[in-house]
Amino acid sequence: MTLNRPGPSELPVAPPPNAFHFGRNWQRYVSAHLDPDRERIAAASLSALVGDLSGKTFVDVGCGSGLFSLCAYRSGASSIVSFDVDPDAVKATHDLHRRAGSPTNWRVIHRSILDPATVADLEPADVVYSWGVLHHTGDMYGAIRNAAALVKRGGRFAIAIYNNDTDRWVTSRRWRHIKRAYNHAPRGLQVGMELLYGLYWLAGCIYHLQDPFRAAREYRQSRGMAVWTDLVDWLGGYPYEFAKAREIIDFCETACGLVCRSIVPEPADGIGNNEFLFERPLE
Description:
The protein folds into two domains: 8-164 and 241-279, Vaccinia Virus protein VP39 (Rossmann fold, 3-Layer(aba) Sandwich), CATH 3.40.50.150; 172-236, no CATH class. The protein contains eleven helices and seven strands. It has helices at residues 22-32, 36-50, 67-74, 87-99, 116-121, 140-148, 172-184, 187-207, 212-218, 227-236, 245-254, and strands at residues 57-61, 79-84, 106-110, 125-131, 151-162, 259-264, 273-279. Helix 1 packs parallel to helix 4 and helix 2 (36-50) crosses helix 3 (67-74). The longest helix is centred in the last third of the chain and has 21 residues, at 187-207. It starts with 21 loop residues before the first helix and ends with a strand.
């Protein structure tokens, strides 16, 4: 996959000024946690969601650590374009690109999915992948629309979007206030909030009669992730939007011309991600 206009592809872009530093968190994950076993687990989760990637063109929207771009490369994708608005995430992905031998069919660029030029510059792909990203842009539906426009006819669109929970005491709307407060707090207070949230996670393990040490070790089974990386990511993940699964399906089918092929739903009272696989019809 290539960019039609290579010059503008390197223009500087920036996340919203009040956004969480996702890229720094992903850099720590790559340096401290990423190993062959996590790569294997991540590759299996990618394959389960999007199917066979051999010979397919792949666009990773909001590539984060670059792990799933790496998995696409190792799975035989014919070309990969990875991009993120966060420069530290781009650096983390560049690091994995170098680890893979700097393959020429994998390109890492600094772009925003909210920039119309990004859609104009990129060729439509067989698979467009954006897991847990588009709800952090500050314009979730605009980001979904732009990302969907990168899917070629017959192509697949895999996204994960936070569920809108209105049933528990800390609803999705209340979580948005917590995340905003975290990102506006001085670093010392942020550390305190991280420790409190870690204790909250620990208390949840004890309440459900789980060994927290074993739970932390086995957390890698969730897409190859690391528990502390995800705890900080969740607490700080702002901007933060959410929607019921039906709302995302309706939008993608009516506004983006896609068809929903599968969904892995979050429980109705859950605040995690609903996973979707859409397809653009051939005609």
